[in-house]
Specification:
7-stranded mixed sheet, 4-stranded antiparallel sheet, 13 helices, Aspartate Aminotransferase, domain 2, alpha/beta, 424 residues, 15 strands
């Protein structure tokens, strides 16, 4: 690998001035022979099984763009890996990404940090809420329950409505819950995990209007913001208008887009100076990972941008393969359209297995590791809540061969269960 000098004062860009086409390999299986917390698993005896694959966690399994390794090599050549201030080149990389990917001009002062998006949500709740306040989540949703209850706040579900196979926001219910004076914040998931929606401008503006009129602060988790399928477009919430920016914060990272979660770093964009001051007061002991900063610089490059475009296209073809395979072999299964994320939301209610049991049943029966719909209930204080009943989530952000294997295991499970139910 060519030696590249890491310039702290400039945006990291190995291909500056170059005009070339990029071609990436998404079929190669990486990390063979290595245990992986989210994909390749050890068994209970500590033995690594190459085909013991987990599709349950939201992390991709692709060869990353070469600029990430180049940035890490260049940074480690600096030798110093102690406490580090955020440097101008990092800010320029982040601002360049926001501008070129989303048309969003971000002021340097808005860019704060946290170890991860979960941590950022928790610290934002500390900054804008008081213990005993309500925080809205739109269920079925990824687990923000702990982030909210850790700060002594209450989870207030605003359940999404499934219409003709597509989820929509329930604005009437949202208005009712925002009007409660104890409701002070909402955690928006955009793109939405697990239902795969990329919210439109009109949907986001309607939510913003309701929240701002009721003095409810919007904490927008946009950790999947790069993973959007054509023709859909992601809109950073705070980019909607200057007024909306004053009532919101956007949280994101390279973790979902480039599978860099282990390097512990994310961005929190806060335009409102008073809210930012409160956040920084909470966040003051949150140190930065020097390699996490370098990864951001390596990802947010021309090559990284081209890689994202091709990764999304490849991943959507994975989704289409799974969708069509289900339609041909398990016609009672159906998938919501994947507008964003690499996490298809699959309806398998025909199996007649309770939400709390389907994850274990699929693993025990055919060795298929997925995430069950019950996990996304939002309010863990209510064991009867189950807005994701009948669904499972399965990661297709991986080489096609992994998706083929998952589809075949799903069909095997379907055949076994249909025989048990006397339908075959």
């Amino acid at each position: 690998m060519e030696k590249i000098v890491f310039d702290y004062n400039k945006r990291f860009e190995p291909d500056e001035g170059a005009d070339r086409d990029y071609t990436f390999d998404f079929d190669t299986i990486i990390d063979k022979g290595i245990g992986h917390a989210t994909w390749r698993c050890y068994d209970k005896d500590g033995k690594l099984e190459e085909d013991n694959i987990s599709y349950s966690v939201a992390e991709s399994k692709y060869l990353p763009p070469s600029t990430i390794a180049k940035a890490l090599h260049a940074r480690i050549d600096n030798v110093h890996i102690g406490y580090e201030s955020i440097y101008p080149g990092y800010y320029e990389s982040v601002k360049w990404w926001c501008r070129t990917r989303f048309g969003w001009d971000v002021d340097t002062s808005w860019i704060c940090h946290s170890p991860g998006v979960h941590d950022g949500i928790q610290m934002m709740i500390q900054a804008v809420c008081q213990p005993g306040d309500n925080v809205i989540v739109q269920t079925p949703i990824y687990c923000f329950w702990g982030d909210i209850t850790h700060e002594g706040c209450h989870v207030l579900p605003n359940e999404l409505v499934l219409k003709n196979g597509r989820y929509e926001m329930d604005y009437e219910d949202l208005e009712k819950k925002c009007s409660d004076p104890k409701t002070t914040a909402i955690v928006l998931c955009s793109p939405h995990n697990p239902v795969g929606r990329v919210w439109t401008r009109e949907e986001l503006l309607k939510l913003a209007d309701i929240c701002i009129r009721n003095n409810v602060f919007i904490i927008s988790d946009e950790n999947h913001w790069d993973i959007v399928m054509k023709p859909h477009k992601h809109i950073p919430f705070s980019s909607l208008s200057p007024e909306i920016a004053m009532h919101s914060a956007v949280l994101t990272s390279t973790a979902k887009s480039f599978a860099t979660a282990a390097l512990i770093h994310s961005q929190v964009y806060i335009a409102n100076p008073e809210v930012r001051k409160k956040y920084l007061k909470v966040q003051y002991m949150s140190y930065r990972n020097v390699f996490g900063l370098a990864v951001v610089c390596g990802a947010y490059t021309k090559e990284g941008s081209a890689w994202i475009d091709q990764m999304c296209e490849y991943t959507y073809h994975n989704f289409v393969y799974l969708r069509d395979f289900c339609a041909q072999n398990m016609p009672e299964f159906w998938l919501t359209e994947l507008e964003g994320t690499y996490l298809p939301w699959i309806n398998v209610e025909v199996l007649q297995i309770p939400s709390k049991e389907i994850k274990k049943w699929l693993d025990d029966t055919v060795g298929l590791k997925i995430q069950d719909g019950y996990f996304f209930r939002g309010n863990y204080d209510d064991p009867e809540a189950d807005p994701g009943a009948g669904f499972i989530r399965l990661n297709v952000g991986c080489p096609r061969s992994f998706v083929v294997t998952a589809a075949e295991k799903l069909k095997k499970a379907y055949d076994i269960r249909m025989k048990e139910l006397g339908k075959k």
